[in-house]
Amino acid sequence: MSPSTTSLYAVRSTRAQVLRRRVGPLLRRVVAGAAGMVAVVALGACSNDDPALTDLPSDIASARPTISAEEARFVLAAEKLGATVTGATVDDDIETGTTTCWVLRNGGVGLDQVAVDDNDVLLPNTGEALRTKQLMAAGVQTFCPDHDDQIALLKLP
């Protein structure tokens, strides 16, 4: 080999070494960070945040003893928003929540077009109209959280 070829390889080798020294620590931090995120996600997947039947009012547990975790989350979300769900109303209330999501996914409309009276005016924040809007919001939070930007259109108190 000629001396010029040797020095060319030496330069390439040096550049590669410099690049490794610069990128190496960064790459190690990225890999360590990714490993940490995988661990957090794995631990999160192991936790059980599903509500138990005992977390629900007793009349709901009696009326619907096989309630799913998702439906139980809906009931708790509705109550947090101020809507009272009872054993007598739980089936219809869940249907309100799931239907709301179906309309958002398939109807091409927003909640401000759904939660209206016969004159196409947004439902008021009183009585059954308010309860309906609360159930719709709980349905979105629980069954289709990808549409949670729609909740603000209900103008809940």
Structure report:
By secondary structure, the chain is an all-alpha fold. It has 6 helices and no strands. The protein is 64% helix and 0% strand. The longest helix has 44 residues, at 3-46. The chain is globular, with a radius of gyration of 28 Å. The model is unreliable at 9-13, 15-19, 24-28 and 30-47 (pLDDT under 50). It folds into 2 domains: 1-47; 53-154. α3 (69-81) packs across α6 and α4 (90-106) crosses α6 (127-143).
Which features does this protein show?
single chain, 2 domains, 157 residues
- Give a count of the beta strands, DSSP E runs of length 2 or more: 0
Shape: globular
Q: Helix count? A: 6
Helix and strand succession? HHHHHH
* Low-pLDDT residue intervals, each spanning 5 or more residues: 9-13, 15-19, 24-28, 30-47
**Structurally, how many domains make up the residues?**
2
pLDDT averaged over residues: 81
Which structural class fits the helix and strand makeup?
A: mainly alpha
Percentage of residues in helical conformation: 55-70%
Computed over alpha carbons, the radius of gyration is 28 Å
How far apart lie the N and C ends?
83 Å
Sheet of most strands: none
| Percent of residues in beta strands | under 5%
